[in-house]
Design a protein that fits this description.
- The protein starts with a helix and ends with a helix.
- The mean pLDDT is 77.
- Helix 1 runs antiparallel to helix 7.
- It has nine helices and two strands.
- The protein has a two-stranded antiparallel sheet.
- 70% of the residues lie in helices and 2% in strands.
- It is an all-alpha fold.
């Protein structure tokens, strides 16, 4: 069961790539300096809506289909399953947001990392390239290690919040800057 959960999480992450184009548009609008002042048309509220609705609806349809066909929840743990699925979807959306806020490869990642095993700078580049999948796999493994579904869902929400914060930092927006810009809009 645990292997299927991790595989399903990676599949949802990979399948949500096509809806992440909206977040790339958000990144493109947040990155450059505003020439004519800042313009807010509800962009921060509008951009996350489509990917969140699409991924959540797809996950609910797939989960409903599995529940109808297999009936694996006969032992009364439906509440725990709903919490785990919701936490996993939140984690996947946070990881997808982190991925879509990525700019060009930073040059400092190309500097050599000399160790007794040789140059490990290629591992840093691979980690930068596949950071979303790494977040999903690591997050699901940590969620799997926790004994309660509530704790797992809380962990997923915390990891997703960290992903959103790191994604906004990639575009040059610190959390304090986002809040001050929202007050001006």
């Amino acid at each position: 069961m645990r292997g299927w959960w991790a595989a399903g999480s990676v599949a949802v992450y990979l399948g949500s790539g096509w809806v992440g184009e909206t977040w790339r548009g958000l990144r493109d609008e947040l990155t450059p300096a505003p020439l004519f002042g800042e313009r807010w048309g509800g962009l921060l509220a509008r951009a996350p809506a489509w990917p969140v609705v699409a991924v959540t609806a797809g996950t609910c349809l797939g989960g409903g289909l599995v529940a109808l066909l297999r009936r694996p929840l006969a032992d009364g743990r439906a509440g725990s399953t709903v919490l785990l699925v919701a936490g996993t979807v939140v984690l996947v959306l946070g990881a997808r947001f982190l991925r879509e806020m990525k700019l060009d490869l930073p040059l400092e990642l190309l500097l050599p990392v000399i160790t007794p095993l040789g140059d490990l700078s290629g591992l840093r580049v691979a980690a930068w390239q596949f950071d979303g999948i790494l977040v999903v796999v690591t997050g699901v493994a940590l969620m799997n290690a926790l004994p309660s579904a509530t704790g797992s869902a809380a962990l997923a929400i915390c990891l997703a919040a960290c992903c959103v914060w790191a994604g906004l930092r990639r575009t040059g927006w610190a959390h304090r800057g986002v809040l001050s810009r929202l007050h001006r809009g």
